[in-house]
Amino acid sequence: MIRYILGRLASIALTFTVVSIIVFLMMHAVPGGPFDGNDMPVNDAVKAKLNASLGLDQPLYVQYFKYMWGVLHFDFGVPFQSPGETVLQLLGRAWPPSLILGGAGVLIGAPLGILLGMAAALRRNTWIDYLASAFATLGLTIPVFVISMALIMVFAVWLNWLPASGWGKPRSWILPIIAYAAIPMATYARYTRSAMLDVLTKPFVTVLRAKGLSERRIIFQHVLRNAALPMVTVFLPMFIGTATGSIFVEAMFRVPGLGAYFVSSIELRDYSLEMALILMITMMFCVAYLISDIIYALLNPRIRFGDRK
Amino acid sequence: MTLLNIENLTVSFPQHDGVVQAVRGVSLRVSPGESIGIVGESGSGKSVTCMAALRLLREPPSRIVADRLELGGVDMLRAGRTQLAAVRGRIAAMVFQDPMTAFDPVFTIGHQIVETIRAHRDLSKSAATTEAAALLARVEIKTPDAILNSYPHQLSGGMLQRAMIAMALSCRPQILFADEPTTALDVTIQAQILHLIKQLQAELGMALIMVTHDLGVVAETVDRVVVMYGGRVMETAPVQDIFDAPLHPYTQALMASMPGRTPGKQRLIEIAGASPNPANPPTGCPFHPRCAVADAQCAAEAPAFRALSESRAAACWRLA
Predict the structure, then answer these.
(1) A203 neighbourhood in chain B, CB within 8 Å
(2) Which of A1, A286, B198, B275 has the maximal Cβ count within 10 Å?
């Protein structure tokens, strides 16, 4: 197990390096620089001075190594679009709203989706199954900005129960959290349904019935435990995917979160921030997959003990 | 007293294009301690009959109809979930064909035997574990404690089938259904497992239903044979009579096709034709298209299953 984890850590380091190189090259392959915008043109001499002050006049490989050296010391540079703070300070300010929304969205959406998927699998080919599956498909196919708009229309405009946007009071968190929860709920409902149906048709379930176990014990102890195996591997990565912000939900509800910076850092050639955001997501996904795989191994004796027949 | 009493059992599976009748009017009585072999080719309805007796088929899609379906005095057709669970494992236990897929892969063998014991008997976890180890020793497993703590994937098929038998016997059932218990095993292991089942049956005094397509298996393990074909019972007789003097043309053809009954190298004898299509079975006797002595009556009407002597019965117009 320890050897396995060490091996995985080495491969994470490799992934991280490869991603950083590719992203760095792609970022600089895009024409233009941070001071080439048309709305506030600067003359060439000023531009050269600004570029030199940020080290952008140096060869690419020097820039890359300088940046990565900083990253190793948790220095992600200064965001060009907001030079009064460091990248880390910007993340510390913009991430909590996204983290709260994404975290609450997954923590509410995933259990709901699991219940929905279980109900669908256990009542296969009945109206419960059709309703749950339709609900899940709608959650995945209706764009999140349409869901957001519908929520705003109903709960803010017509019923006037909740604020339409903003971030100040926890009351205004409710609608964006619901909007955020739609995708985890739908994804989990579909995963749970297919994982449960897969297990329910296994021969050992018939054996469990033939032993005279109660249906409740069969479902909750045996079927769920087996169905959970493929599900644990999607939970954490989905959490990361959601908790790093949604451009659409945050824009619809005017949440000062991380989502908008993904777009602006690319548009404004904000190299430091762009690199920091992508490296952060890469690292979080790597760690999430590592933890998921360890949990999977702990739950699955076939991996935990290997095959020693 | 009759332990298992099946009268006129029909099991059907609706398909997109009609209904498949897997079992068509089977009757079967088993007394305590009796051992019965159900033989037949694939699709003859032998496994489905056993699964239906324990109500283990998914309903729907399957549909079970019978004049009578009683197991240990319980009306299995009217029994609710709780009552069914009380019969299964306790009155009637089942050993399945493929031991490799019969255990839940994420729990130890010990866990799965202990939960079976505790589902039916009021025992503490530690008492049930001691009992499970004793059961494993009884099925001739040399290191019961090691096996208790093993996961299914760590054991061989033969070992798993022994554990499966131990689990089936853990609540002292009055009848054991063994559905092709040796088909998935190596030939060398098959004889050991059969011997074990036979021996335990005698020791515990329980009834045994051995489902198999292997005539050698029934010869070694059972007292009475039920021959099935196309979802119907063709003939039933004491095991010796089936081998020495088969009456039904199908049984006769089956015996003739058994290799190695006479010494020397010979061409294998087969029954001409193919098994009936369960979605579109032949009219009349299901065997008539392949039968050497069939006539117009056989094609028109299915023969009733009737007694020919005290111990023998068959369904054939030629045996009237």
Answers:
(1) 96, 98, 101-102
(2) A286
